[in-house]
Amino acid sequence: MPGKPTALVLRAAGTNCDGEMVRAFELAGADAQLVHLDRLIENPRLLAGADLIGFPGGFSYGDDIASGRIFAMKVRERLYPALKRAVDDGCLIIGACNGFQVMVQCGLLPGPQSGEQSGETPPPQRVSLTDNQDARFCDRWVGVEFNPRSVCVWTRGLTDFPEDTTPAHVATINQLPVAHGEGRFVTAEPAVLKQLEQNGQVVLRYTDNYNGSEGAVAGICDTTGRVFGLMPHPERYLDWTRHPYWTRLDASTRKGATPGLRIFQNAVEAAKGVVVA
After folding, report:
1. Domain of 127, in residue numbers
2. Which end of the chain has fewer surrounding CB within 10 Å, N or C?
C-alpha cells in the first residue's frame, strides 16, 4: 500500500481522548484525521478511504442513559453496514474505554462468531461493560497481561521478551492507565467467554482484576483480529515519561517504543501490508 495509511478518529460531544488517539496514529506512521460522527453518518463513503479507524475514550454525549449508549446507537442504526464492509475490506479498528463500550453495543465486538452469517445486520449484543464492582470511578495505572494465543493484530509481539527478562521487569513495563466507572466486563452467559477464549479473542487481562471483570478480561477482538477494544488507554502511554514511575526506569527498560505505542505501530504496519511477527 503506497504512502501513509489513513486513520479516521471519530469524535462527538463529550469525547476527550480524541487528540491522544490522533497523536498515537501519527507517531505510529499514519495520516490521522479527526471526523465528527454526524459528518460520517451524512457521508459514510468517507470510510472507503480509511485503513484504520479509532473510537476514542471520554464521555460521549455525556454518557446520558449509559456509557457510550447514544454514540453506539447512532453507529448501530446508521453506520454498521458501512463499518462492516470496511472490516471485510481489511480495515483495522480500535476502541479504548468509551470507544470499547460503543463497539460492544453497536455490534462490532465481539462480532459475528463461527457459523454465523456475516451480513449487514448487527449481531446480538453478547458482552457489556457495566459498573465497576465497587461502584466507583477508577482512575489509575493497572497491570495487564497480553495473551500470546490471541489472534489480535494490534498486540502481536507484546509478549516477546528476551529470555533473561524477569517477571518483575515484564510487570513494570506492561501497565496501562484506566479511567472509568463502567468498565467491568461481563458476558450474556458463561458460554460466551469460553467461546471467546477458544477463538483467541481474549486479548489482555488485568493482573489484579480491580473492577471485577469476568475472567479478568480487559480487552477483546473479533475473529479476524483486526477489530480490537479495551478499557485501558494505550493512547495515554505513548512516551516513557507517562509511566507512573518513569524516573526510576533504567535505560534498558525504556528501550524502544512503549507498549501503548507498539499497539498502534502493529496496526499501521499491518495496514501497510507488512507482516507483523
Report:
1. 6-271
2. C
Q: How confident is the model at residue 274 (pLDDT cuts 50, 70, 90)?
A: low
Please state the domain count of the chain: 1
For the question of residue 235 being annotated catalytic, the response is yes
State yes or no: is 233 an active-site residue. yes
Structural domain includes residue 258 = yes
Q: Give how far Cα 147 sits from Cα of 124, 187, 203, 206, 250, Å.
A: 26, 19, 5, 11, 26
Residue 143: which CATH number? 3.40.50.880
- Cα-Cα-Cα-Cα dihedral sign, residues 70, 76, 79, 85: positive
Rounded Cα–Cα distance for residues 221 and 223 (Å)? 7
Distance CA 173, CA 82 (A): 37
Count CA atoms closer than 13 A to 44's CA, side-chain side: 14
Kindly state whether residue 200 falls inside one of the protein's structural domains: yes
Residue with cell 495515554: 236
Catalytic site residue from 152, 235, 243, 269: 235
Tell me the percentage of the chain whose pLDDT exceeds 90: 86
* 138 a catalytic residue: no
Residue 276 lies in a domain: no
Would 1 be classed as within a structural domain?
no
- Give every CB contact of residue 37 below 8 A, 6+ residues apart in sequence: 10, 11, 12, 71, 74, 75
Strand, coil or helix: 92: strand
Is the pLDDT at 138 greater than 90, yes or no?
yes
pLDDT band, very low/low/confident/very high, at 204 (cuts 50, 70, 90): very high
Predicted local distance difference test score (pLDDT) of residue 1: 43
Q: All 3 cell numbers of residue 254? A: 525504556
Model confidence, pTM: 0.95
Active-site choice (17, 20, 91, 97): 97
CA–CA dist 212, 80 (Å, integer): 30
Active-site choice (20, 233, 243, 269): 233
